[in-house]
Amino acid sequence: MHSHFSPDSMMSPERLVRRCEQVGLNCIAVTDHNTTAGALRARELAQFHVIIGEEVRSSEGEITGLFLDESIPAGLTPVETARRIKDQGGLVSVPHPFDRFRRSVITTRGLEEVWPHADIIEVFNARNNLDADNRKAREFAAAHDLIGSAVTDAHTVVELGRTYIEMPEFDGTPGGFKDALSQGALHTRKMTPLIHVATRFTVLYKKLFGAPPSQPNEAK
User: Fold this and answer.
1) Residues in Cβ contact with 55 at an 8 Å cutoff, skipping those fewer than 6 apart
2) Among 49, 71, 57, 120, CA closest to 91
3) Half-sphere exposure of 109 (CA within 13 A, CB side)
4) Using a CB cutoff of 8 Å and minimum separation of 24, what contacts does 194-197 make?
5) 3-state helix, strand, coil in the chain (%, to 5)
6) Can you tell me the distance from the alpha carbon of 200 to that of 95, in angstroms, rounded to the nearest whole number?
7) I want to staple 133 with a disulfide (CB 3.0 to 4.6 A). Which of 81, 98, 193, 204 is the partner?
8) d(C-alpha 92, C-alpha 13), whole Å
9) What DSSP state is assigned to residue 29?
């Protein structure tokens, strides 16, 4: 999920945390574009587990790092991006690898380069318009022995809690998370394609007017 630290979201970490509490999410990964700032802010606010993540724009498309200590710069090669994630003890996840409509999706060459270093692949992304794209990701994960995840990829509060994974408690470590995720049950629910219109509007709005300020008391 994304906060307003991403250029395509208006959702403050305060609103994000409050909504997660309302819908019963007790472990989340905040993966803003090219920064861990939103995840760090959410962790300060939440009474539940927040995984520090980042959706990094590599030279060949997006790669997600989980369990990070600090942000990873954009523009590196897929292998170098994965290496920097691993150097922090993190996990490498490949987001929406076959979504044919997103310009940020990892290229075929990038996927071939990074999958040997990956731990997780998104086999369901609620923002993918076509079921075939999610199905292709499931087939790729099975063929390459990668753990599959399901995500909302939420940029707005209405998306939170629609797709989630029910999995065993884990010890807070990346290894424990991988083991629990491999036993998880995926609960999936697609978003309307119109959600992308809202995202594009957000990008334009923020280019013109900037991001809204964070509101520290909103989550109380």
Assistant:
1) 2, 6, 31, 32, 33, 34, 62, 63, 64, 95
2) 120
3) 4
4) 195/127, 195/155, 195/156, 195/159, 196/101, 196/127, 196/129
5) 35, 20, 45
6) 19
7) 98
8) 23
9) E
Residue with tokens 């007017």: 209
Query: How many Å apart are CA 17 and CA 138, to the nearest integer?
Result: 30
Residue 216 has pLDDT above 90, yes or no: no
**Whole-number pLDDT of residue 220:** 38
Q: Cα separation of 76 and 63, whole Å?
A: 11
Q: What is the DSSP pairing of strand 49-58 with strand 27-33?
A: parallel
Two tokens, residue 67: 């369990």
CB 81 within 8 A of CB 118: no
Put residue 67 in one of left, alpha, beta given phi > 0 → left and psi -120 to 50 → alpha. left
For residues 38 and 50, is the Cβ–Cβ distance under 8 A? Answer: no
Which tokens hold the place of 58? 């590599």
Give me 55's structure tokens.
Answer: 């959706």
Beta strands in 95-170 (DSSP E): 120-125, 147-151, 164-166
Amino acid sitting at position 219: A
Both tokens of residue 145? 């022995």
pLDDT tens-place string over residues 77-105? 999 999 999 999 999 999 999 999 999 99
